[in-house]
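In response to a reviewer's request, we include the raw inputs and outputs for one of the modeled complexes. The two entities were modeled together in a single run.
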Amino acid sequence: MAINWFKYSAPSNFYGLAGKLIPFFAWPAAILFVIGLYIGFFVAPTDATQSEAYRIIFIHVPASILSMFIYLIMAGYAAMGLIFNTRLSSMMAQALAPTGALFAFISLWTGALWGKPMWGAWWVWDARLTSELILLFLYLGYIALHASIEDPRRADRASALLAIVGSVNVPIIYFSVKWWNTLHQGATIKFSGTSMHVAMQQAMFITLVACWLYAIAVALARVRSIILERERNTQWVNELKEVQQ
Amino acid sequence: MNWGEFFAMNGYAFYVWGSYGVTLLVFAIEIGLVRNRRKQILRELRLIRTDMEDNGNGERA
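The model returned the following structure tokens for the whole complex.
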């Protein structure tokens, strides 16, 4: 099949494509959140040791996974923009940062609300919690740095460096529970199998997919505005029907 | 199980609903911000366009 994928690396072409794609991510995200949380709250049994408090897991774990993955994807796009000088990759990195920060915040917030009843503390300066907090600060630093430089191409390059250097933090978060003694429990789901109830696993997997789709939909919507903002002086933007009216 | 029991979460209501409530809130805020950003840039672009038409020569004011 002769599909010209490079066509969509031009912001003018990607703008329309992104607009068409959004509903295909947004609606399944909403539906899967409902299904996942239904299973999580009504099918999954009460936990023997944590009672109902464990149900925080269905948002805490997906949000934590997403906060790390989005960072790596953001750093990847930023690096592509830096190396190949492709404008759209830099715009995608810029569009992903706020959503990544949001998931890092949710991870920390739900973690605090889970830590209090289980460990007796909202917060401890342990390796996993601290490295996740650093992840949130990396996102905020990336956003602030990008916003502080007026020339968008220079802003792309400077913040790309920050994003790339900061990506060493992601494996630190992931392996922190193995490398250091920590209050935070290790991975429950391993390649060797899991002790988790099957309905709990299903609920967590479905909400994880829902979070992924949500993140993609929001990033696509945001990148469309970024494209318009940064291409405002071009012919094609002025000819768009949403600008013409 | 009745609804009262369900919402009580066996005494963990504050922690469980505090987690999901705030998550829902930040999702709603993010969607609102994304929508506003689009509205704002479109408004600016329409202004630029009318300025251009006013000049009549296609140059930006």
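As requested, we also summarize the result in words. The radius of gyration of chain A is 20 Å. Strands of chain A lie at 189-190, 193-194.
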